[in-house]
Design brief:
alpha/beta; five-stranded antiparallel beta sheet; 26 strands; about 35% helix
């Protein structure tokens, strides 16, 4: 069969761009298809605009503490148009990295239209039939909308519409207490909105509860209100709405649905060609291969973790497998994620709960507090801790909560994957004073009983006695 391309990639978000760019840089003929905005959810509706909003909110929060460290600031004056401009300036600054022009320069043939998979090796797009021995599906995800009675009768926001707001909400009600809900709750509260979070389960449910408790306390101090209940019904009320949750009524002006995301994998012809799916997306193996030979699925559209850096990782793996023929399996042993509240919450590897369910009493936990970190004390911001989860002296996971917690994940990930060790981390020389010293302290605590144990003490005593005799 004569093919038009070596590989066809459907989706121009983090996963698809990484796969397409990688294959093109190896010299393959790549067709890259994206019907909507290049850069996908992360650039346009997710990571980039949310972090820009968080940055603006942090500036306002700092000014609200009128006197600190002997320095007095004027109260903040929040101009929503300026915040809105900052958000979209950030998107515009990063957009060239993900642009059609950049990937054409790499060697991709870019199609800006909807794709339809018509066979294991064929795709129709823009009235053309493209063929290739490999197809990569990277169609992302979309907001999961919960079955709240009356929701269709009121306007509501998701992450896809939130950053287009032209006014600051007076009272933002957020359905969902995951990462997106918590980040946006704090950000809008700091900018001046009243904020209520409605969540029936555990806040930030995939994170360590001890870390989440620190964040919840911080948000409550800033004025975020939490309602532990299911959002049952919503109805128009004046210029806003009234939400009923667990017998309580909440009147708000803006409603944000932040109850997770679901795979965007239907409507592309995949079912018709035999690609297996479940309730969480396209079913794949460890190499991201679907049930149809030659078709891969990566990123949010497949069953698995939904994080931008995971999408990039899978895109790289698939690009290597397609270009060099080297099987590349995913490894989640040191999977990291971070929630960018203040303080931040970061996790890498297993949580304490997951580790204990797998290894039982063989798990040991070492906790170091930022109360004992001298950079945190000089900052006047010592909230939070590091929790190292160990089996013996091997690090299985780490949970961090504190200022810039996400910046401290890299060396911990290296110890989990075996590219470093807890002993190497505990004996490393790091700059003083830095927050990263907490990782060194935690790792050293894992070795302290051994280093200062009975045998080393006896040896030290022997050396001392010999030295006295020879002196």
């Amino acid at each position: 069969m004569k093919f038009t391309h070596d590989v066809i990639v459907i989706g121009g978000g983090a996963a698809g761009l990484t796969a397409a760019g990688g294959c093109a840089l190896f010299g393959l003929d790549v067709a890259l298809i994206e019907a909507r905005k290049m850069g996908g959810e992360c650039l346009n509706d997710g990571c980039v605009p949310s972090k820009a909003l968080i940055a603006a909110a942090a500036r306002a929060a700092e000014a609200r503490i009128s006197t600190r460290h002997g320095v007095t600031l004027a109260p903040p004056q929040v101009e929503w148009r300026g915040v809105h401009r900052h958000i979209h300036d950030a998107i515009a600054a990063i957009a060239p990295h993900d642009s059609e022009e950049r990937f054409e320069e790499m060697g991709c043939e870019v199609f800006r239209d909807w794709a339809q998979v018509t066979g294991p090796q064929s795709v129709e797009v823009a009235w053309r039939t493209l063929t290739a021995p490999r197809i990569v599906i990277a169609t992302g995800s979309k907001p999961a909308i919960p079955p709240i009675a009356g929701l269709d009768e009121v306007p509501y926001l998701t992450n896809e519409t939130l950053f287009a707001l032209e006014e600051l909400p007076d009272h933002l009600v957020i359905a969902g207490g995951g990462a997106i809900g918590m980040e946006m709750a704090q950000a809008f509260r700091r900018l001046g909105s009243a904020v209520t979070v409605v969540e029936p389960g555990q806040l930030m449910g995939r994170d360590d509860p001890d870390s989440v408790a620190v964040v919840r306390a911080a948000l409550e101090r800033e004025g975020v209100r939490f309602v532990h209940a299911t959002a049952d019904r919503v109805e128009p009320q004046g210029a806003g709405f009234r939400l009923t949750a667990g017998g309580e009524t909440i009147d708000g002006t803006h409603l944000l649905i932040a109850t997770g995301r679901r795979a965007n994998c239907t409507g592309f012809g995949l079912e018709e060609v035999g690609v297996a799916m479940n309730d969480n997306g396209i079913v794949v193996d460890d190499r991201r291969r679907t049930s149809v030979k030659g078709i891969y699925a990566i990123g949010d559209c497949r069953d698995g973790p939904r994080l931008t850096h995971v999408s990039g990782y899978e895109g790289s793996n698939v690009a290597l497998e397609i270009t060099l023929g080297i099987p590349a399996k995913v490894d989640w042993s040191a999977l990291p994620w971070c929630t960018y509240t203040a303080p931040e919450v970061a996790q890498v590897g297993l949580t304490e709960k997951d580790a204990r369910s797998r290894y039982g009493d063989r798990v040991r936990v070492v906790t170091e507090s930022f109360h004992d970190n001298e950079r945190a004390l000089t900052d006047g911001d010592d909230a939070g801790h590091l929790k190292l989860v160990l089996k013996g002296r091997k690090v299985l996971g780490a949970s961090l909560v504190g200022k810039h917690a996400g910046e401290m994940v890299l060396p911990l990930a290296q110890t989990i994957t075996g590219k470093s060790s807890s002993f190497a981390l505990g004996s490393a020389i790091v700059p003083y004073p830095t927050r990263s010293e907490i990782s060194k302290a935690g790792a050293f605590s894992a070795w302290e009983p051994t280093v200062f144990g009975t045998v080393p003490k006896k040896w030290a005593g022997l050396v001392a006695r010999i030295r006295r005799r020879l002196a």
